[in-house]
Design the sequence.
């Protein structure tokens, strides 16, 4: 279709702004006609939910639909089995995604992905607590998170080692 557009008539002998607008209109009209669109239903999708999980999900849904149509014991057992398989696969993929990574920098992203996937909301709760401390103001909640992560990932070092850098040819520190 783009080959049949008379481009010399569309963009010649007009100012560049108008030519650009016409070009975009024609291009996007053809894009909308010929390129399929995918509708994203939600803004967050779990990073571990891949094609295997989707196949298990579809199998679970088909078994559930068949059970609702024909209420038999074999259909009920198949529905329960596919449901359990789907849950086990998602749990395994989530664990693998969270814990089997060689990149330690991904822990923050994976932590928040885990929190989002296991909560019904993408917001923090109104009141949070750590040990015996309860906080409800955003700044106080941020401090609680900071305290928690400091406890998890840092500890004070008590090394008393004297380094002598005077004869180091590789790292000349003056």
Sequence:
């Amino acid at each position: 279709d783009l080959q049949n557009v008379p481009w010399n008539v569309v963009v010649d002998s007009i100012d560049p702004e108008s030519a650009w607008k016409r070009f975009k209109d024609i291009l996007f009209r053809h894009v909308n006609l010929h390129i399929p669109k995918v509708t994203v239903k939600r803004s967050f999708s779990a990073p571990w939910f891949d094609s295997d999980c989707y196949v298990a999900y579809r199998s679970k849904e088909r078994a559930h639909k068949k059970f609702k149509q024909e209420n038999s014991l074999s259909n009920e057992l198949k529905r329960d089995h596919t449901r359990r398989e789907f849950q086990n696969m998602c749990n395994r993929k989530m664990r693998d995604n969270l814990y089997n990574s060689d990149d330690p920098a991904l822990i923050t992203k994976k932590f928040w992905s885990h929190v989002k996937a296991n909560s019904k909301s993408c917001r923090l709760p109104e009141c949070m607590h750590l040990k015996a401390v309860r906080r409800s103001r955003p700044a106080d909640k941020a401090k609680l998170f900071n305290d928690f992560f400091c406890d998890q990932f840092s500890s004070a070092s008590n090394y008393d080692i004297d380094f002598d850098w005077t004869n180091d040819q590789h790292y000349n520190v003056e």
DSSP finds six helices and two strands in the chain.
